[in-house]
Task: inverse folding
């Protein structure tokens, strides 16, 4: 049975590839793979699995709270970064991420920080926001290939997450991936404002001005559904304690395993 019908996954026609675009993507694959081989000796990797305590950084404002208070979480050695680019890292990033294993969770555009930043991190995996069985469909095929700079660490998500595809958000899928890991007990969340607040260093409007004028409005309209889906996700893992750091409390009710910390 088609996975899209089975799991009721809606797919835009914009994902369909023509031969000209396919040739362009193959060129990008070769280009970034080449530089991946060149830079490989200068990068540090770890094969250790995430621990019982995990930090997840989204790109919302409250991630700044973690940057300022990272010493309070120095015992948490596994950290996931969702859609992080170079501009999302503070000047003292090498000190903040020192002795932590960094896992990148990226979307279809394969956002990745600069080589300069990567060279100062201990890298675990790069997780692509599509499940493995989607790889043969246009919706799941890679197009950017920028993450081939870290080609040896690139992974599709396991198909066990297909049943959660209703989350329809890369940040929520990252939380879901982490919650499905073995032995995870505490998840510390920063930067998940669900579009009720701004990004780390800019407003929602400034973030999306390069795409189209309606995108900011679309994000703001989506925030209520994202908030609702987040609560459903937390309820699905009652044995895990979620610690959400956020600028203001946007929840009227919350599950017992969700701890709200105002920043």
Result:
């Amino acid at each position: 049975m088609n996975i899209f019908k089975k799991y009721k996954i809606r797919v835009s026609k914009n994902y369909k590839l023509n031969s000209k675009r396919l040739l362009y993507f193959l060129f990008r694959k070769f280009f970034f793979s080449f530089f991946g081989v060149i830079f490989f000796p200068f990068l540090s990797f770890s094969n250790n699995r995430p621990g019982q305590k995990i930090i997840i950084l989204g790109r919302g404002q409250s991630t700044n709270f973690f940057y300022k208070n990272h010493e309070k979480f120095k015992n948490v050695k596994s950290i996931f970064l969702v859609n992080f680019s170079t501009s999302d890292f503070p000047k003292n990033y090498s000190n903040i991420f020192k002795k932590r294993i960094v896992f990148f969770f990226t979307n279809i555009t394969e956002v990745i920080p600069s080589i300069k930043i990567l060279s100062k991190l201990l890298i675990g995996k790069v997780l692509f926001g599509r499940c493995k069985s989607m790889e043969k469909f246009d919706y799941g095929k890679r197009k950017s290939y920028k993450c081939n700079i870290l080609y040896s660490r690139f992974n599709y998500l396991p198909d066990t997450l297909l049943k959660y595809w209703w989350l329809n958000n890369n940040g929520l899928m990252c939380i879901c991936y982490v919650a499905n890991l073995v032995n995870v007990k505490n998840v510390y969340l920063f930067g998940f404002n669900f579009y009720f607040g701004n990004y780390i260093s800019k407003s929602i409007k400034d973030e999306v001005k390069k795409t189209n004028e309606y995108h900011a409005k679309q994000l703001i309209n989506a925030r209520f559904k994202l908030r609702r889906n987040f609560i459903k996700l937390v309820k699905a893992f009652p044995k895990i304690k979620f610690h959400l750091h956020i600028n203001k409390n946007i929840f009227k009710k919350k599950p017992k395993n969700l701890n709200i910390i105002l920043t």
Q: What stands out?
A: The helical segments are 3-6, 19-39, 63-69, 93-96, 115-118, 170-179, 204-208, 215-235. The chain has eight helices and nine strands. The chain has one domain: 17-262.
